[in-house]
Amino acid sequence: YIEMNTLGKSAENRKLPASYNHSASQKDRKLGARKEKRFELWLKNSQFFPDKSFDKTTGWNEMDYVSDCKTIYIELKGRRCNKYDYDTTMIGHNKYIKARKLIMKGFKVYFFFSFRDRVCFYPVPIMLPSAVDIRDGGTWRRGCDEVKKHLYIPVGLLYDVKDFPSIRYFNEFLLNRDY
User: Fold this and answer.
1) What's the predicted TM-score (pTM) here?
2) Could you say which of 26, 33, 111, 157 is the most buried, measured as most Cβ atoms within 10 Å of its Cβ?
3) CA-CA distance, 83 to 103, in Å (whole number)?
4) Sheet harboring 133-139: ordered strands across?
């Protein structure tokens, strides 16, 4: 049984996925909730985004957080692996489509990945580099086929948050790096 108000307004009229009540889905949602709680504490207490506070979006939205002045959007993905366990990490293509629309309107969008050993981020570009692959992928471990289009981002393109005291330092790094 699912109490609809726990899903948020945008989910009230949506059909729940076939895998929603599967035990693996319940474990995944619990992992996601734990990762979100830790991330929200970090977001609140760190100076990574100085002078910004973030609100958690409600329901099943493509982006998890929006800054108080609505200039930055963040999507957080929890991972059960370490950063370098695989060559790439995946994120739904629908997340990139939404991010691209936001970028075209002048917003900044970041995908954050909470791995077991570190938290990383990917500043979403309007045009994906050729190293990022788009192909079908997903899982069957939740009792049904959950395959869809995903971005496969090489982990070498992800930045560790611990390497940058703030997004300003990161932006300076981008401006001053040699290609």
Assistant:
1) 0.84
2) 111
3) 26
4) 88-92, 146-154, 133-139
